Amino acid sequence: xxxxxxxxxxxxxRGSDTDPAKRPNKFRQAFPQYVAVSPFFILFxxxxxxxxxxSIWLSFHSWDGIGQLKWVGLEQYSYxxxxxxxxxxxxxxLIIWVLSTVPMLLLALVIANALHNATRxxxxxxxxxxxxxITSVVAVTMVFGSVFSNNFxxxxxxxxxxxxxxxxxxxxxxxxxxxxxxxxxxxxxGYNAIIFLAGLQAISSDIxxxxxxxxxxxxxxFWQITxxxxxPVILFTAVTSTIGGLQIFTESQVLFGASGSIGGPGDGGxxxxxxxxxxxxxxxxxxxxxxxxxxxxxxxxxxSIINWRLIGGxxxxxxxxxxxxxxxxxxxxxxxxxxxxxxH
Length: 344
Hints:
The chain has 344 residues and is mostly helical. It has a domain at 77-313: MetI-like (MetI-like fold, Orthogonal Bundle), CATH 1.10.3720.10. Helices cover 72% and strands 1% of the residues. A two-stranded antiparallel sheet has the order 1-2.
């Protein structure tokens, strides 16, 4: 006999479906994923974040690396601004940066344009230009050290072969700067050329075809189309070159580290990082070395902002400024023409 619905027992509802307290914990479900990615964050906290914050704290202390930390407040920074060797290292770094970065970026842009227009052996040339960037910096510096050697260098041998006098490249402050700048430019020109080449390949060929129809010459196409459209890429290479140029260390260390003077004769190759290394690990003044490091950080940020203001900015701002300059030139030309007509 069938049981009627009126006396049928109520179906038991599981608490996991209706009770919020017994719903699955989302954190427990995602816990294996958190464990899987935790090694990166642990290593970053130990070897990345902690040294940064500790260096800030250390810059306000005097410490030889063994004894107790001694609080000195802003004395490290006040001495930094009056330290003539520190300002000399800044001057040397900026000169080397200008001597290496400006010709490097110009040459890289020319090479990238040539590679973009090349029809044969493109892959070979790309690899050939990129190889210096993956070559050991120490090995490259040792080779260039023999090239710029005072007595038996290849460069002096070439100068004497054409009847010129030898130049003591590694004994004069300016010769040292030229040698270091040459090493930096040789190593990074190909890298920046590949970056520029990627930017050139992103420019539509229709723009160049329209320019050819309008009668634009190759030089006009380069300066009026290629360079403006490559502005974001140029900004990227300028900022990265600035960051790398202000952190030059290995070249001067390899060239002059064994001589007892990390900057070479007359401290001509003394850079900011070299001075930081000499104070922290040579004189065991880790607090002052930390202060130099944060001064370098501020300098990098400052020059990066300058590069962004000179090269970057929004397109609307640049178009507005360009239109204003054109209007000013037009007004000046009309005024000059009016004055000439009144005079005659």
